[in-house]
Amino acid sequence: MRMLRRPDATRSQSVTPLGAIARGLVAGAVGTLAMDTLWYVRYRRDDGKSPFLRWEFSSDILSWEQAPAPAHVGKRLYEGLFRRELPDHRAALVSNVMHWGYGILNAVPYAVLVGSVPDPKVRFGAPFGAGVWATSYVVLPAAGLYKPIWEYDARVLAKDLSAHLVYGLTTAAVFRLSARRVGSRRHGPQR
Questions:
Q1: What are phi and psi for residue 35, nearest 5 degrees?
Q2: In whole angstroms, what is the distance from residue 21 CA to residue 151 CA?
Q3: DSSP assignment string, the chain
Q4: pLDDT in tens, 119-170
Q5: Ramachandran category for residue 117: left, alpha or beta (phi over 0 → left; psi -120 to 50 → alpha)
Q6: Burial zone of 47 (CB within 10 Å; 0-12 exposed, 13-18 middle, 19+ buried)
Q7: Comparing C-alpha atoms, which of 155, 152, 127, 126 is closest to residue 137?
């Protein structure tokens, strides 16, 4: 006797909140790497000379004056919490911790939210990535680390937005793939 399959049997089931968090952390790391790969390709196209790992891990940052905005956020957090000044030689480390931490941890609320739907779509990553991008242009100017968004050239904003869309869409794709695998394991092979 042949059993009929329910119409939604090929869809993944929603994941548990802890499962969503774990998958979100992994998806956020892969999304961050995808975004960084795009930034690195652009860097090399503009005659950048550093090899990928040296560039990725900010090995050329030797002082806070050279450090990007995420490093300055980390510096402020550390110094505010511990009431100790961070020396220049920590700028590269703090830059990496903040950049990767932000990319990985931003994916957690996304994963919990889309993990609660039966069939998370990759396209959900576009508004997610755009939201992360927009948040930086609200928070960082308020912190005095960026200029207001209207003071940036449209081309600069477009390049930054496109990189964040790569982050969001890659994060969403990795999350969807991991959620689908869970759903197929939970239900066993389909006939």
A1: -65, -45
A2: 36
A3: -PPPPPTTTTSPPPPPHHHHHHHHHHHHHHHHHHHHHHHHHHHHHTT--S-HHHHHTTTT--STTT--HHHHHHHHHHHHHH--PPPGGGHHHHHHHHHHHHHHHHHHHHHHHHTTSSS--GGGHHHHHHHHHHHHHHHHHHTTSS--GGGS-HHHHHHHHHHHHHHHHHHHHHHHHHHHHHHHHHH----
A4: 899 999 999 999 999 999 999 999 999 999 999 999 999 999 999 999 999 9
A5: beta
A6: exposed
A7: 152
Residues in the chain: 191
Per-residue pLDDT tens over the stretch 88-101: 999 999 999 999 99
Residue with tokens 């939210």: 113
